[in-house]
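Whether sequence alone determines local backbone shape is best considered at the level of individual chains. When preparing material for the folding task, we compiled for one chain both its residues and its backbone structure tokens. The sequence in question and its structure tokens are set out directly beneath this paragraph.
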Amino acid sequence: AYEVPLVIQDRNFNTSGQLVYAKNNNGETGNTILVNGTIQPYHNVAKRKYRLRVYNGSNARFYKLAFSNGQSFQVIGMEGGLLSAPVTVTSLTLAPAERADIVVSFANIAVGGNVELRNTLVGSTDSAYKIMRFNVTSTATDTSVVPSTLRTVTAIPRSQAVRTRNFTLSGGMMGGMWTINGNGFDPNRVDATPRLNETEIWKFTNQSMMDHPIHLHDVMFQILTINGAAPAATHRGWKDVVIVPRQMGTAEIIMKFTDYTGKFPFHCHVLEHEDNMMMSQFEVLP
């Protein structure tokens, strides 16, 4: 009752209420926000803490999540599960396919009041500004406590990496192909061959004018740097999506290939970028 999954998406509807998709090489953004498939969503809550499991299921839209009253919330996990400790923030940016586990308290809102979850990357008149409303409808006795330590997340040392691979993200100009190292996707080509139980660092450099959320299949990784600096505390757990900033931005990740051999894709999770060839594959060798 106090743990709520929230899938946030944006879709385009015409004046007849029909879904419309007009392919946009930069990424399709919608004129309507849906949460769990619902337009103008709301959720009735009690005056207590709630755990919200949030997923950005949009094709291309990034969200900077914040509450309308400016209140803080705690980030306790990302794609790979719990962080080592909760991180208190007043906003959190999620790219397509990123997930966040957050704890928010509605205890300071009077019964009969409400608070909105908003996307502050856009202005208040934009249709993508208001995500959903939480209506406080009852009191509650809340004895729950967020532990100060959630679990042990041991950082993988750089020295453990046996090699570093470099990937350049580019393309997309004037509707052109999006590329990784100058190549579009080819199912017959393998661009990296890590070995089972080896650790590697992958560095992505983004030459394009758009941010790219890069998603790896098969393996969870840790972010070493974004633009040469340590990642935010919210992003120091296990991840499978990393945002590579635009205009020569960089991201370094480190991971150990511990489970399966075989071929796996990695790609930009802006769906139109992926569809327009910004995808590659690696093969884990025995």
About this structure: Residues 158-284 form a domain with the Immunoglobulin-like fold (CATH 2.60.40.420). The two ends are 45 Å apart (CA to CA).
